[in-house]
Design goal:
By secondary structure, the protein is mostly helical. The chain contains 7 helices and 2 strands; from the N terminus they run ααβααααβα.
């Protein structure tokens, strides 16, 4: 009798383990589909209305310094050309070195100032861009957005750059 009860209990356990409910529990839950998008963030930044305005303002602010560098560069080229003639080689060497040093110092200073100005002007635009990208991803069920510069190839249908530019332009 004990063996019959044991066999009945074993059979009941086997039936429980093979039931559809327990089979469903054993299956892993399905993960949501991964939805990707790609953006050219540099293009979005530079082509947005605020980005175009910032670039124009930066170029305008430093146009005189760039012009001065161009004049200095022309003077250097003239001295280099004159230094190739045997009769003017000696006196121009010291002047040429002085101009080259002045040009290098002025160029480094300009690069540093432009970099600082870009950082200051683009920081708020970048913040708007990031906010727009995040909102766009949530609204469109996008799991991940990658900068296009990181890919060797991607299907152009994944590119959301134009949509993001439009949204950035609409934001305040």
């Amino acid at each position: 009798m004990k063996s019959t009860a044991f066999m009945t209990a074993l059979l009941a356990l086997a039936l429980c383990l093979s039931s559809p409910a327990s089979a469903q529990e054993a299956k892993p839950t399905a993960q949501p589909a991964l939805k990707l998008a790609v953006i050219n963030s540099r293009e979005a930044l530079a082509r947005s209305n605020k980005g175009v305005a910032a670039i124009s303002e930066i170029q305008s602010k430093f146009s005189n310094q760039r012009r001065e560098l161009g004049v200095l560069q022309q003077e250097i080229l003239k001295l280099q050309a004159a230094g190739q003639k045997p009769q003017t080689r000696g006196p121009n060497t010291a002047q040429l070195q002085q101009k080259l040093q002045a040009y290098g110092a002025a160029e480094r200073k300009l690069i540093q100032e432009v970099s600082q100005e870009e950082g200051a002007r683009f920081k708020p635009i970048i913040e708007v861009l990031h906010k727009v990208v995040e909102e766009y991803a949530k609204e469109n069920g996008i799991t991940a957005i990658q900068d296009s510069g990181s890919f060797v190839y991607f299907d152009s249908s994944l590119d959301i750059t134009e949509e993001i530019i439009k949204q950035v332009n609409l934001s305040n």
